[in-house]
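Same chain as my last thread, 158 residues:
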Amino acid sequence: MKFLAVDYGTRRIGLAVSDELEFGAHPLATIHRSRSLHHDLAEIARHADKAEAEGIVVGLPLNADGSHGPAAEAATQFANSLKKHTRLPITLHDEFLTTAEAEEAMIAADVSRKRRREVIDQMAAAELLRSFLRFREAQRRQPQPAAVSPVPEQAAAE
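reply #2:
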């Protein structure tokens, strides 16, 4: 299944896409926020259609203790608004440390500060999507409970 990840921010929105086999996530684009939420949502829906995504993952910026702060509430409202612009299923997924991980990876690769600023949001979206794909894989690998069938009754010994 192919997914589009959305790293929602107040100034920019990062997008990333997975491959159909869910092996990897790749940075796709950065949308600079406009004054119109409707325009931003339509742009995300356009990217999802163009990428042939079958689902959308929106980053949920939980606090370090797992609680919902103002940023998580804003992301939730954003995801609810996005639902009105697409028929694709939308999933919220914890994005804790995704931007920091993306920044670290780019520093290690000696990417210039200017270039990092240009692509950090789509790189964070790719980290979010990798985290989501690992979560899905772990869910699939969990052992399923064995089917329970009744034990047949023994015929009474004569």
